[in-house]
Design goal:
177 residues, alpha+beta, Peptide Methionine Sulfoxide Reductase, Chain A, five-stranded mixed β-barrel
Length: 177
């Protein structure tokens, strides 16, 4: 079976692991640490390297789960417009165009196109950068992923008494694929 991998960072990696576990098409979710290069965001367009960010590795079947759907799930829980070390990293150049397209969509979501007095829409919806909403999500190529220790894997399944702000059962029930 052909599988793909994608890497997400942001928030608590225990919560991220629980969020993506048991979704359709997800084969394995591993908590760990992400090292990536050429990381770029709308706010910081200069390529940079990130090291040892907590995150998750998601192995999925692309015939059952789409990369954009995974990113939609991530952005349902984490706000891409807040500075929270949110990142999307790929290990394959094949996925980069789809990630870039989705990131452009997120960055421009909810923006009204600029219009002239004659009600003609102009081409640049960001003509006034002072009012543009900033997307802080970083995207880049994965350099290395290091799995966390066994005590961090499937943390909420091992410790059901731990409370979190996310109601995972309710969230997963509301997702439509």
């Amino acid at each position: 079976m052909y599988t793909k991998k994608i890497y997400f960072s942001g928030g608590d990696f225990h919560e991220l692991q629980e969020l993506f576990t048991d979704l359709p098409g997800i084969l394995k979710v591993t908590a760990g640490y992400i090292d990536a290069r050429n990381v770029i965001s709308q706010v910081n367009p200069e390529p940079r390297t990130v090291e040892n960010f907590p995150g998750v590795e998601i192995e999925f079947n692309p015939k059952k789960m789409d990369l954009s759907m995974l990113m939609d799930v991530l952005f349902n829980v984490l706000n891409p417009y807040a500075e929270n070390n949110l990142g999307v990293y790929s290990s394959s150049a094949e996925d980069e165009p789809q990630i870039e397209l989705h990131m452009n969509f997120i960055a421009n979501r909810g923006k009204q196109p600029a219009a002239t007095g004659a009600m003609l829409t102009v081409n640049d919806p960001n003509h006034n950068p002072k009012f543009a909403r900033k997307c802080y999500v970083a995207a880049g190529r994965l350099t290395k992923f290091s799995p966390a220790g066994e005590e961090h894997q499937n943390y909420f399944q091992k410790h059901p008494e731990i409370k979190t702000d996310i109601d995972f059962k309710k969230l997963k029930a509301s997702l439509k694929f």
